[in-house]
Amino acid sequence: MIGEQELKKMKKAALLINVSRGTIIDEQALCQALKNGEIAGAALDVFEQEPPATENPLFDLDNIIFSPHNAALTDEALIAMATHSAQGIVDCLNGIKPKYVVNPEVFGLYRTKST
Questions:
Q1: Is 106 within a domain?
Q2: Concatenated DSSP letters for the chain?
Q3: Which of 13, 29, 82, 97 pairs as cysteine with 4 (C-beta 3.0–4.6 A)?
Q4: Can 111 be counted among the known catalytic residues?
Q5: Which residue intervals define the domain D-isomer specific 2-hydroxyacid dehydrogenase NAD-binding in the entry (predicted)?
């Protein structure tokens, strides 16, 4: 979604912040924009590759800051994650397919009782 062309449209004083998904920003284009002063800086909580490679060129820049993929760690998000996890366990124990199944292809292999 955000590549070279989009970065060129930003003001030189702009700060780009990404706390959503790493793949929405072309990291190579972002690195060039930061190096060339096309934007002032960036802050990333996510990367195209998780975890990021230690040789990621963004780590060499001084006009970018990083956080350890924790933007979703609000009280509300933590409560929702715990509630959804608990409900998924209850559903499995009752032989019901949970709402948030990561690998649905194996769900039927481990049912506790038939439905």
A1: yes
A2: -B-HHHHHTS-TT-EEEE-S-GGGB-HHHHHHHHHTTSSSEEEES--SSSSPPTT-GGGG-SSEEE--S-TT-SHHHHHHHHHHHHHHHHHHHTT---SS-S-GGGGGGG-SS--
A3: 29
A4: no
A5: 1-71
